Structures are given as C-alpha cells and as structure tokens.
From TrEMBL:
Matches recorded under InterPro entries: Cyt_b561_bac/Ni-Hgenase, Cytochrome_b561_oxidase, Di-haem_cyt_TM
Entry protein name: Cytochrome b
Keyword Nucleotide-binding listed: no
Membrane topology: Multi-pass membrane protein
Annotated organism of origin: Aquibium pacificus
Family indicated by similarity: Belongs to the cytochrome b561 family.
Subcellular location: Cell membrane
Pfam families assigned: Ni_hydr_CYTB (PF01292)
Transmembrane stretches, start-end: 55-75, 102-122, 134-154
Named cofactor requirement(s): heme b
Domain Cytochrome b561 bacterial/Ni-hydrogenase: 9-164
Keywords: Cell membrane, Electron transport, Heme, Iron, Membrane, Metal-binding, Transmembrane, Transmembrane helix, Transport
Length: 171
C-alpha cells in the first residue's frame, strides 16, 4: 500500500494513530452498550432513554473513527510509512503486515457494517459486526504486544517512531 518509505511518521499520522486506537478500543470494550437498543428496535419495541443514549454514543464515536480513518488513509498515501526494522525476519514482517492490513480494514469495515445494521436495519450486517469483535481483540493484542516486543526486547525504533514525528515532517 505504501507509496514512500520515509524515516518515520508525520505528526498528523501519529496523532491520528493514537486517537483512532483509543476510540477503537473504547468501541470494542463498550460495544455491548448498543445491543439492547438495537434488539428493541428489531423487535418493534421502544428502547429506554438510557439505551438510546448509550447507542448514540456508540454510533457517533464509530462514525468519528470512519472519518478519521479516511483522513489517515489519505495521509498514508501522501506520506507513506517507514520500512520494517533491519534484521526483522520474514515471519515477523508478515505478522506485522497482516495485522496492519486487518486493522486498516477494521477502521473502515466496523463503522460501515455497523451503519448498515443500524441505519439500514440489516441484522446480518450486525452479526458480521459482532463476529468481528473477538478477531479484532486478538489482532489488537498481537499488534500492541508486537510493538512492545520491538521496543523492550528487540530494542528497535518501531514504537518510538509512532511517538516522535520524523524530523523532516511537514504535516
Ligand atoms: C470503530 C468502530 C466500531 C467498533 C469497533 C464497533 C464495535 C462493536 C462491538 C464490540 C459491538 C458489540 C458486540 C457484542 O458484544 O455483542 C457492537 C455492536 C453494534 N454496533 Fe458497533 N462498532 C463500531 C462502529 C459502529 C457504528 C458506526 C455503528 C452504527 C452506525 C455501529 C452499530 C452497532 C450495532 C447496531 C451493534 C449491535 C449489533 C447486533 O446486536 O447485532 N457500530 N459494535
Ligand atoms: C493499543 C495499543 C497500540 C500500540 C502500542 C500500537 C503501536 C503501533 C506502532 C508502534 C506502530 C508503528 C509500526 C511501524 O512503524 O512499523 C503502529 C502502526 C499501526 N497501528 Fe497501532 N498500536 C496500537 C493500537 C492500534 C489500534 C487499536 C489500531 C487500529 C484499530 C492500530 C492500527 C495501526 C495501523 C493500521 C498501523 C500501521 C500504520 C501504517 O503503516 O500506516 N493500532 N501501531
């Protein structure tokens, strides 16, 4: 996907990574909050005010992730991403690459499938959305563990470059 192999990420790319990560993890942890309102609507019942409130939070945060993901993808094409650290095995590269691809897919796929279920009233989309939860929890854990492993065990700059912008960064 990359169009360039710079030394690091720009400030905007870094901020977007961490804001999206925080919102995404929040959604995974508190996603159940929308389930009761969605079930009520599907059964033709009126959800409680509290259930509607919880559902709205899930919907708005999820749609925010979608907008931020679109900006992030544009920046990714514009500024690229740094190469894998020197000395990384092909297996490690494949795991990191696959995790990144799944996470990029998820920050678009989760809001879109959720919106199809919620606004389109298509329960199958909600089922796919729910089934993705355990898979995405596992991928986020592997991704975060990989970043910590790189920092503390392999002692590469992989975590630092997602904290400190590259020196020539303009955005
Ligand atoms: C970052 C984006 C999102 C993530 C990570 C996410 C995650 C989740 C999770 C973890 C659940 C609960 C699964 C469970 O424990 O049963 C859930 C349910 C649900 N979400 Fe999302 N969600 C996101 C965005 C959205 C958006 C934008 C909408 C609507 C516009 C939405 C609509 C729904 C609906 C309708 C359900 C209930 C599905 C059902 O019960 O079949 N989600 N979501
Ligand atoms: C929760 C703790 C997390 C940590 C410690 C973390 C750490 C990192 C680090 C260090 C990188 C840079 C990898 C490199 O330059 O080779 C990175 C990249 C990335 N992270 Fe995370 N991350 C976390 C959560 C997330 C979440 C929740 C998502 C998405 C839902 C995510 C999506 C991505 C993506 C797509 C990349 C690739 C960036 C690119 O090449 O454009 N991360 N992450």
């Amino acid at each position: 996907m990359s169009v360039a192999r710079p030394a690091g990420y720009t400030t905007a790319q870094i901020i977007l990574h961490w804001v999206i990560a925080a919102l995404f993890v929040f959604q995974l942890v508190f996603g159940e909050d929308i389930v009761s309102a969605y079930r009520a609507y599907r059964q033709g019942a009126t959800p409680t005010d509290a259930a509607i409130f919880d559902a709205n939070i899930h919907v708005y945060i999820g749609l925010t992730v979608l907008v931020l993901a679109a900006i992030r993808l544009i920046l990714r094409f514009r500024y690229g991403a740094p190469p894998a650290p020197a000395g990384e095995s092909n297996v490690q590269k494949a795991i990191a690459h696959t995790a990144h691809a799944v996470l990029y897919l998820a920050i678009f796929g989760m809001p879109i499938s959720g919106a199809i279920a919620w606004f389109g009233g298509i329960p199958e989309a909600g089922e796919v959305h729910e089934l993705a939860k355990p898979v995405l929890i596992a991928v986020v854990v592997i991704h975060a563990a990989g970043a910590l492993w790189q920092h503390f065990v392999a002692k590469t700059d992989v975590l630092t470059r997602m904290v400190k912008p590259r020196s020539d960064a303009r955005a």
